[in-house]
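Self-study notes.
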Amino acid sequence: MNRRPLSPVDICSHDVYEQAIPHEAFARLRRDTPVAWHPEPGGNAGFWAVTRWADLVAVHRDHETFSSQIGGTELEELERDPEAREARRTMLETDPPEHTRLRRMVSRNFTRRSIDRWTGDARRIMARVLDDALGGAGANGAGAEVEFVGAVARRLPILMISRILGVPDGDTGSLFEWADRIIYHADPDYSEVVFDKEDTDPYRLLPFRSPTSTRVFAYAQRLADGKRRHPADDVVSLLVAADELSPQNFNTLFLLLVIAGNETTRHALNHGALALAERPDELARLRADPDLLTAAVEEVLRYASPQIHFRRTAMADTKIAGVPVAAGDKVVTWYLSANYDGEVFADPYTLDLGRDPNRHVTFGGGGPHFCLGSWLARLEVRVFLEEVLARNLRLEVCGEVTRVRSNFINGLKRLPLRLAAG
């Protein structure tokens, strides 16, 4: 087992990601020890850090060797607490055939054809969101200073996934405030009980050890009861009609869809907008050649890399890139590293809206857990870029950009931008 120091930066530290993406640490790992043993504090066993694109893809496509179900997909070692593992299990923490069964229950609502039907709604929502953000400034060309995360990036994904799930627009504010508190469980600006700073054992049976989960679960049951009486053409009505899930399984699946349908796109939009503000030449390039739009969407998704990592558990003695891995070992794949692998992406730290090919792993490396919401995320990034082009907007940073304290989500907390006709 390789016990050499990995880098001067702890890639597991929430504090590290609150400051910046540790690109130099990941580059060193990819170069020197692409499959490296990473110790952990607090009595945890440690894990294998997989940082190269090719190795990540190999792990994700081999679900028989690398399980999502045995230990879950988080760094927390739930295999040591079977009761918590079962209570917190979502579709993510299952392997085929159970994963296949659960995915089929909702997948028809997230196919490319199904998502294409939402294109008009997405465009109307995006136009309204930008109208609200700009106020009267859009009409007179004076521009407006906005806090982009709250004014733009947060609103489109929330409204879109809510309509697909069947959540009334009036409920979205509370529901997604709760979801933020859960997924950002290590950030004191969001979490009711900060994961690595306070005692979260009383909440070990709840997702991300967050007491806020109970509010989402109570809401999910109220929504389900309403859909039983008044079904509609939405995901929750479909799940209620199928009647194949226990209340607990329904609650955790609902929470997963709420979080997954919001976070990836929100931060793709945030990082994309920041990158365009920092690289006005690329925005000008897209204006000059709108045929680059499809490639631009994929590049924003690669560059943003909203998901930092996911975990698997080795089911048998095996090797990754020639490195022996023992049965039961934790294996953590780092999306944020693989999407910047210079062996796959030329000049990876540069935003290149014409990048082709672009084999990013923002939606996973393939296999059964490839992101269910990939087409929805693509649609939302696309309509944002379309609106920026249609309004001839110029984006400029006009204040301090702050990051979420999380080693799981590559998120921006605050992004002050000036939006003006350019």
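Second protein, same conventions, sequence then structure:
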Amino acid sequence: MIVISYNVNGIRAAITKGFLDWLSAANPDVICLQEIKALENQIPTEDIKALGYNYQYYYPAQKKGYSGVAILSKIEPKQVVFGTGIEHMDFEGRNLRVDFEDVSVMSLYLPSGTNIDRLSHKFMYMDDFQQYINQLKQTIPNLIICGDYNICHQAIDIHDPIRNAKVSGFLPEERAWLDGFMKSGFIDSFRYFNNEPHQYSWWSYRANARNNNKGWRIDYNLVSDNLKDRLTRAAILPEAKHSDHCPILVEIK
């Protein structure tokens, strides 16, 4: 099974930049999208279905044109779960999960901490999400949590760790949370296969950052520890340029 995660920063905008042609060529079994910024009736679902994605699930934010996640699948899930049941998380359409026979895949869009209010909201979300996943693992042990975590884990994951040490996304408290979350039973699938520096998944639109590869690795496919022996490949796909993020891929047996 090939699973891709992609923050498209507006699915309609991404489609105008060739997203559907790219999706046809990449051909994952499942793709998790974040920041769709659209309602289902604003998305060309028939065009997507024509690519083989008969199972499409959209979970937009209540605020129009903001946030929202989706999962497109070629495989029929046995269950689909919209949200977490925690109101402050679900209001913004940030969690969507599909359960297959022996593995579950979640699309996650963790808040950014752009100001003091949003940073406190982000920390509340992170704490509640950890508790939610701790409980979920008791009944669904085989989890792949794909998405934009809005946190760089380590210095190797950001182009300038010194200057960004006090910027949200690389704050010590955020990094400690992500480290603890991974240690609670998840593998960073990309780092499982690749320890090279200068590997990023997001670049600012400013100062020609992408062409200069001044980026951040804030998108992860985190895989339950007990799926470790089934991991076969993980990659970042920076050649896809429909967003300020790029897709990330994980393959499991």
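Instructor comment on the second fold: The chain has a mean pLDDT of 97.
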